[in-house]
Amino acid sequence: MERVVGTVVRGLRCPIINKGDCIEDIVVDSVLKAATVEGFAIKDKDIVTVTESVVARAQGNYATIDHIAADVHAKFGNDATIGVIFPILSRNRFSIVLRGLAKRVKKIVLMLSYPSDEVGNQLVDIDLLDEKGINPWTDVLTEAQFREAFGYNKHRFTGVDYITYYKSLIEDQGTACEVVFSNHPKTILEYTKDVLTCDIHSRFRTKRILKANGGQKVYSLDEILSSPIDGCGFNESYGLLGSNKSTEESVKLFPRDCQPIVDRIQRTLFEKTGKQVEVMIYGDGAFKDPVGKIWELADPVVSPAYTAGLNGTPNEVKLKYLADNNFASLRGEELKQAISAFITNKEADLVGAMESQGTTPRQLTDLIGSLSDLTSGSGDKGTPIVYIQGYFDNYTK
Fold this sequence. Notes:
Helix content is 33%, strand content 14%. The protein is α/β, with parallel strands linked by helices. It comes from Paenibacillus ginsengarvi.
């Protein structure tokens, strides 16, 4: 029978996961149960993806405001005035972190990038900058200057004025706060030489610039809680990067030691089914919302761990290019057979080939992680496990 369905993606429901649960067993049992109930066969090169959130929950990878404050104090010392620069604008991602940063320092100089943060959350519409004659690449603004130019603006999705909100979180800890607006790391050194840079994907460059221009105590968020404080959660690779709000006093950190988890899930599924299923843990997808202009990737990576079969990038040809160029004179079954033969005999590396233009030369884990994140969502779907079939198939299979 002719195959008429390509890639199939299923969000799988599973029990609510808590600290101490065996995430590997839960994933395997959920996959096997779904296959039985829904009537699909597990096949070689299927993919199981698991959201990082439930992995971290099972690990109990949590920390409190006090743990964050203790680590900041250990790094910056007593009565410190620190620059906190380039944080993302997010209650979920940064509010609890900011309270911890502020709890045991004397003053925070909060430097915000504008017109938006690193992932696209806007402080002000970029068109207003043009209207006011302000250049975000050259102009440094005080809070008063920013307010005079742009007034009070609320985030279109959350309804929060993040300038007021972040300043209040700091001052509620009894800590002085000064807010400035600049896109240049060096600006903060005019206020203090001790800096915590909170950007995610540009953090290495930011730290290099700060250290090269007189920064003294310079850290990034991946260095806060990179080891445990009084037995709390931690992440040796990413620290507080990838963390998000758990309670009003604590955060859940990005999961750690993930490679043994995906390897064990793969091994157990093979033992139970005889099929080689690929496995990965995923966080935020790497895509941008065209309406809100927000780039989704607030985690340090899309996937902290995956099995070997998910290494690399796709090696695909563009069907419409073949149909419009190589086989423009063909139609119907003859065209289908010609394209199928071309795909079967395509080169192992199509980089630079005209037939591959317009395909997606991204890492497989970034593509699959984005697909999984869009499938599971971040709300109440209750499907933290995603099962993908046919992802590696092409027009000939």
